[in-house]
Amino acid sequence: VYPYLLRGVEVTRPNQVWSSDITYVPLAHGWAYLVAVIDWYARRVLAWRLSNTLEAGFCVDCLEEAVRAHGRPEIFNTDQGAQFTSAAFTGVLHREGIAISMDGRGRALDNIFVERLWRSVKYEDVYIKGYA
């Protein structure tokens, strides 16, 4: 687990801080798992992936796509989920020279921009279309 690096940080430019999170999308016979990488300054989704499992691979693929397409951020923030603490995921961040920041346990507001994205996705699409 890594410390939360964003307390008091003023985000003033693109690629300064990115973050990621996973949300669950209910389906008729189970769940789909949606991961996104968002730039805190632009408040824009840089990459996303959908998976039928919670294995770390789809998160790693999403991160690598974002880095390929947009360069690399100075800081990458996530929660302490198993996918984001995995050697595969943190290995990409270390290899790219990206500082790792992690929310405190139970502190969803530490990653507020991704949480706001999930609220929009669910209320503007998932709950209306009812994929379950």
UniProtKB/TrEMBL annotation:
One of its GO terms (biological process) is DNA integration. GO terms for molecular function: nucleic acid binding. Residues 10-132 form the Integrase catalytic domain. It comes from the Bacteria. PANTHER family: TRANSPOSASE INSF FOR INSERTION SEQUENCE IS3B-RELATED (PTHR46889), TRANSPOSASE INSO FOR INSERTION SEQUENCE ELEMENT IS911B-RELATED (PTHR46889:SF4). This is DDE-type integrase/transposase/recombinase. The lineage of its organism: Bacteria, Pseudomonadati, Pseudomonadota, Gammaproteobacteria, Chromatiales.
